């Protein structure tokens, strides 16, 4: 009798993750993720290029890296609510599985 409960509990525990993964339809995913439109400066100028060319490169490089940072921060801000929802769902799932496993353990101890 105890072995049957154990097998039933294991079967149900195995079914819980499968159910959790298929219970809600996934949100549609964009076919191609957005890409930045930052303009990368050319090659680093040599000393022979002159000071004004080096300053211009430096200015273009700072503009490029600022553009990359801005794009990354914008994408993170867009993703934040989705990450929070995902983490909340994971926490709820973990709590549900723990509660189930605790009940199975309690019932197994009571049946001894």
Describe the structure.
This protein is mostly helical and 112 residues long. It has a domain at 41-112. Helices cover 72% and strands 0% of the residues. The protein is built from 2 helices and no strands. Helix 1 (2-22) runs antiparallel to helix 2 (51-110). The longest helix has 60 residues, at 51-110. The chain is rod-shaped. 0% of the residues are buried. The model has no long low-confidence stretch (mean pLDDT 84).
Supply database-style keywords.
single chain, 72% helix, 112 residues
Structure, briefly:
72% of the residues lie in helices and 0% in strands. The protein has 112 residues and is an all-alpha fold. The protein has a domain at 41-112.
Based on CA atoms alone, the radius of gyration comes out at: 28 Å
Beta content:
under 5%
State the order of secondary-structure elements, H for helix, E for strand. Answer: HH
The tally of beta strands, per DSSP, is 0
| Helix content, binned percent | over 70%
- Detail the poorly predicted runs: none
Mean pLDDT: 84
Distance between the termini: 11 Å
Largest sheet: none
Structural class: mainly alpha
Shape, principal axes of CA atoms: rod-shaped
Note the topology.
Layout: H1 2-22, H2 51-110
Helix pairs in contact: 1-2
